Each structure stands twice: as C-alpha cells, then as structure tokens.
Amino acid sequence: MKGALLGCGFFAENQMKAWQSLPGVEIAAVCDPDPARRERFQKAFGVTQAFAEARELLEQCRLDFVDIAAPTPTHEALVRLAADHGVDIICQKPFAGSPDRAKSLIEYCAQKGVSLSIHENFRFQYAVREVIRRVRNDEIGTPFFGRISYRNGFDVYKSQPYLARAERFIIEDLGIHVLDIARALFGDVHRLSCETSRINPDIVGEDVATLMLRHDNGATSIVDCSYATHLTPDPFPQTLIDIDGAKGSLRLTADARLYLHTREGCETHRVEVSAPDWSTPPWTIIQESVVAFQAHWLECRRAGVEADTSGRDNYNTLALVEAAYEAADRHTVVMPERWS
Ligand code: NAD
Ligand code: 89Y
Predict the structure, then answer these.
(1) CA distance 65 to 305
(2) Can you tell me whether residue 268 is helix, strand or coil?
(3) How many angstroms does the Cα of residue 142 sit away from the middle of ligand 1?
(4) CA of 174 to the centre of ligand 2 (A)
(5) Does residue 56 have its Cβ closer than 6 Å to ligand 1?
(6) Could you tell me which residue ranges the GFO/IDH/MocA-like oxidoreductase domain spans (predicted)?
(7) 62-109, pLDDT tens digit by residue?
(8) Is residue 281 part of a domain?
(9) Which range marks the domain in which residue 256 is found?
C-alpha cells in the first residue's frame, strides 16, 4: 500500500517511523510548505518524492491513502483535496474546527467514495486497551462510575509552541483524547458539565478542565485534565483510570499497574508497553499507540471495514469537545450533538 504524509512537523515523525515499522506499506511522498522540514524527512526516511504543496503531490503520485499530520486549520482543505483525488484519508485530531465542519467533511468523503479515519491514538495505548478489553469482557460487570484523569506539569509548549497561543487549549488538544477514552469505555454521552481554569499566565487558553459526563448507559464519569499539576515523578503522558462496576473495580495507576478488584480479592497486572526501538521517553506510550493505531487502520483497510476511529465515530468525540466549551462558558449542563 502506498501513502503520502502531509506535514513533516513534530508529531509526523512518529507517524513516519510507525509506517516504516509496519509491513506492506510505504510512504512514497511527503509534503510540507517548509523546505527544511520536507527535505529533512525525505533524507532521514529515504522518501522518493517531496512536495511543497499537497495538490501537486496528489496530481503526480498514484496513492492509496494520505496521512494528514499538518496543523488543524489546514485539515479541512487537505481532506477535501484528497477526497477529490479518490484516496483514502487518515487525519490527525481534531479533524475539524466544529461538529458542523466535521459533518460536512464526513459527507464529502462519503460522496467521493473514500474512507475518512481519524488518528485518535490514546484509546490504542496498551494500558488503555487493556482496561477497555477487561470492561468489554465483563470482568467488573456493568460499569456505573469512571474517572479518567490526565494531570501533569510537562512542558508541552517546548515541542508544540502553538499550544501556548491557542484560545482553546487543553480540552481541544488533549481532553479530546481523554473524552474519546470515556466514550470507548462507557459509550456515548447524554449530558455533560465542565469547568475550566488557566493557571499558567504565559498561555492564552485553559490548561485545566474538569468534566462530569452522564453516559447513555447510565454510567457517570469524571474526565479531568491539567498541564498545571506539579508531581515528582511527572506522570506525562499517562492517563490514569478508575472504574467501578457492579461486580468489581479496575484501577490503572501511574506505575503501569492495572488492579482488578472483585469480591474474591485483587489481581495485579503489569501493563508496561514494549517500546518501539525508535521511541524517545517520555513519549514511549504515545509512540507505541501510534504504531497500534496505524496497524489497526491497515488491518481494517485490508479487510474493507471502517476503523474504530472513523470520521463518523470521532464526530461524537469532537461534539463532546464543543459541548465542553459551551458548558464551561455558560456554566450549564449541555447535551452534545451526535452522529445520526
Ligand atoms: P507542527 O507545527 O510541528 O507540524 C505541522 C507541520 O505541517 C509543519 O511542518 C508545517 O509546516 C506543515 N504544514 C502546514 N501547512 C501544511 C499544508 N497545507 N500541507 C502540508 N503540511 C503543512 O504540528 P504538530 O505538533 O506536529 O501537530 C500536527 C497535528 O498533529 C495537529 O493536528 C495536532 O493536534 C496533532 N497532534 C497529535 C498528537 C497525538 O498524540 N495524536 C500529538 C501531537 C500533535
Ligand atoms: O498535542 C497533544 C496530543 O495530542 O497528545 C499530547 C500532546 O502532544 C500535547 O498535549
């Protein structure tokens, strides 16, 4: 399978290395308006062709798919362009600036007969996958409560300086992943409330958010995120999870242990990842999840089925982000939009 990577920036490097580690797939071209970036990628990863513009790339290369790792404001135009050229699409999160824009992209891709999948990798982290697997396997019975928590003081602005300038920061950039984990565990959300704060005075957007969600299945979950929490050791980029179910409870802790409590007692499972040989701590669990997501996408593409994080599925995650900002702004409970 032949693909092209659109965007040669900070996160694209993980995607490139992950593609190179997977059998039967080749990144035949890259594209970035910044010559130094595209030339570095072309050289470092032995890519055949490099372009300044996606239009030129799509006109000249015969491809099966594009992998969009460019900044969010470019996603819409790149998705439409790729759909016009009849290639399948993977797009980084958040794939559109609003649920309405997302809906029009999903419909456009459907009209053009191409698949749209979203690079939503956090639910593919090994420890998170293990929690999801045990919940779906009914090991704790029907869940009635969850807390999905992401709190650290890591300097994310160093590698991603645009985050410090974003008016919408932690919910749109990071909370989107944590909300997606909540959906993967408990299903879609009927209503939510949210409060936010900005603790770091040097950034524009919110760096702390606390949400309460009521899921369709009756479970309540708390999703909380912070980039203003000083801890030693710093748990970045781990997501910690507590779930209580009718038959037992699960606790995913920062030492990569998963505790399964039932009436019979407690089992402890190590949920450490086997790191890709190119991984760069502390990013290891995220980098492994990039490989896992891309492997899942390839498997689905080969089987002709939708990826778990299709555009349609991710619409409902994006709608939670929008609802969270509305709830925080109006200090009220909001019923999120959903794909129908
Ligand atoms: P970045 O700014 O480091 O890289 C983006 C690159 O895209 C730059 O090199 C830029 O020159 C290039 N670019 C700009 N316009 C383009 C266009 N029209 N066509 C092709 N390339 C273009 O940003 P980043 O931190 O790598 O983030 C990129 C995307 O990845 C964002 O959507 C971000 O939210 C997402 N991201 C996801 C994760 C994750 O874990 N899933 C982590 C970090 C970033
Ligand atoms: O951009 C973010 C993401 O998607 O995962 C972590 C991150 O890199 C910083 O918040």
Answers:
(1) 15
(2) strand
(3) 39
(4) 5
(5) no
(6) 129-251
(7) 999 999 999 999 999 999 999 999 999 999 999 999 999 999 999 999
(8) no
(9) 122-272+310-330
